[in-house]
Design goal:
By secondary structure, the protein is α+β, with helices and mostly antiparallel strands. The chain is built from seven helices and four strands. It folds into two domains: 88 residues, no CATH class; 127 residues, no CATH class. Helices cover 57% and strands 12% of the residues. Strands 1-2-3-4 form a four-stranded mixed β-sheet. Helix 1 crosses helix 3 and helix 2 runs antiparallel to helix 3. It is elongated, with a radius of gyration of 24 Å. 19% of the residues are buried.
Length: 232
Amino acid sequence: MARKETAADAANAGRLKQIALTYRMTRKVDTKIGLVLAAVGLGTLAVFLVIGFLVGHPVYLGIFGLLVGLLATAVVFGRRAERAAFGQMEGQPGAAAAVLDNVGRGWTTTPAVAMNRSQDVVHRAVGKAGIVLVAEGNPNRVKSLLAAEKKKMNRIVADVPVHDIIVGGGEGQVELKKLRTTMLKFPRVLTGPQVTATNDRLRALGDLMSNMPVPKGPMPKGMRLPKGQRGR
């Protein structure tokens, strides 16, 4: 029993430490987070107390208001922390890849499947919606990079739908904070076995390209680096 209590205490301490760390990181971006959370929690409690006095049950509604206030505070904290995190990630190289890693179950992500010398990059995610290519970088340069990768996907897995997204705040682009939601809105057209088969085909292609020898000396004009050699 003592061993179980020790493990539980350690887990609780870890959660509290994580919450405290998240709060400190959020406060650096959202300086009013403390006031907002206090207002939400105390405001909710006050509303229930007033209702409690009006109906003659201030204790019961006060306890219920406290629980609802804590829940409301947690929800608001989570949303503002997420917004602050996206704000810090916005414009940072690899930000889209970090979001793709947290899209959810059923998705297999491969970062930086294509990249140019200017560090514009295309990431790939495979799920029941098909293949989603997510590009981040200069909008003018990344379009050609994205088009080339999409053409390659259509040639390798012609029977699988390929979607493309450019992360950014411009017209026709998707903001980083809306990337996950946008991907989840794509219609699911593949079964589980079809997703597995698609991943296997793409993985086999990646292994084949990574094992290709790179010639020494100047690179021939028009030759593309294998995936494993890009960006080095």
